[in-house]
Specification:
By secondary structure, this protein is α/β, with parallel strands linked by helices. It is built from eight helices and seven strands, in the order βαβαβαβαβαβαααβ. Bound molecules: nicotinamide-adenine-dinucleotide. Nicotinamide-adenine-dinucleotide (NAD) is lined by residues 24-25, 27-31, 49-51, 54, 74-77, 102-106, 125, 129, 152, 154, 199, 201-202, 204, 206-207.
Length: 267
């Protein structure tokens, strides 16, 4: 006789009913798709963005689907904003189970041209911002004894992109992976799971705008030729991973990264 399967049926373990989530950078692109995915799976979702109107627009989209939502303006590089963001959610819902630290920025620049200002700006959002949010989230998850933190990294954490040059972005994203592993090890015994998602090239508005420029038109065929799947990700291709990492089904997983890149990192 094999061991008894004691868990709930598999699809029930993907459901997020009764859970509360926040998504930083949720006002557009990948964060917006994450917010929709978590909401569709049953969670109440706080859409957090530096640009208030974007957060409000996505929160409205969620409400129209019958999803309980909040719009919060916050700059993830500011500790006070991160603390206020958590307080707003606690005041509204009394709990935070899922924190998706997704806000990130990038720039193309040869390493020898990178300025200190450029270094600080990208590091502040991509590394400091992720840490400040994770810390603020963990402080309310610890008393509850349960929480799911999901950081958006990038395949750029694993490879140096080509042909564009982006040492600062790549370095910050590699930092997100190691921050994820370290926080996972520190907080595992408090019931908090910390994992990351590493998308490959993803067709967001910003990428589309870029591809409309002469530089972008030169880059796109190179990117696609280096991607075994022969295409970029759609934001919807990333939604399953965020629900999986947010849900009970992945409770034994922590400190891991899910690469979703059409096979780019395999070559
Ligand atoms: P995007 O630029 O379309 O959206 C990012 C959102 O974050 C914007 O709404 C912006 O207002 C917000 N934001 C920026 N700085 C902020 C701050 N300081 N505080 C709060 N919000 C802030 O980006 P995207 O393409 O959706 O990327 C989302 C994440 O995915 C980023 O971390 C990015 O590095 C990562 N990523 C993107 C791709 C891609 O190809 N698009 C690939 C791999 C990883």
């Amino acid at each position: 006789m094999d061991v008894v399967l004691e868990a709930k049926p598999i699809l029930e373990r993907f459901q997020l009913d009764g859970r509360t989530a926040l998504v930083t950078g949720g006002g557009q692109g990948i964060g917006r798709a994450f917010a929709h995915a978590l909401g569709e799976a049953g969670a109440s979702v706080a859409v957090v963005d530096l640009v208030k109107e974007r957060a409000e627009e996505v929160a409205q989209e969620l409400s129209e689907k019958g999803i309980t939502s909040l719009a919060i303006k916050a700059d993830v590089t500011q500790k006070d904003d991160c603390d206020t963001m958590i307080q707003t959610i606690m005041d509204a819902w009394g709990t935070l189970t899922i924190g998706v630290n997704n806000a990130g920025i990038g720039d193309w620049m040869a390493a020898e041209e990178v300025t200190e200002e450029n270094w600080d700006k990208i590091n502040n959002v991509n590394l400091k911002g992720v840490f400040l949010c994770a810390q603020a989230e963990a402080k309310v998850m610890m008393p509850a004894g349960y929480g799911k933190i999901i950081n958006t990294a990038s395949m750029s954490a694993w490879i140096a992109n080509y042909p564009q040059k982006q040492v600062v972005y790549n370095t910050t994203k590699a930092g997100v992976l190691h921050m994820t592993r370290t926080l996972a090890s520190e907080w595992a015994d408090r019931g908090i799971r910390v994992n990351s998602i590493s998308p490959g090239y993803t067709r967001t508005k910003l990428v589309e705008d870029l591809l409309a420029t002469p530089v972008g038109q030169e880059m796109a065929p190179k990117w696609l030729s280096m991607t075994p799947a022969g295409k970029m990700a759609e934001v919807t291709d990333l939604q399953g991973a965020v629900v999986f990492l947010a849900a009970q089904v992945s409770d034994f997983m922590t400190g891991s990264d899910m690469i979703i890149d059409g096979g780019y990192c395999t070559w």
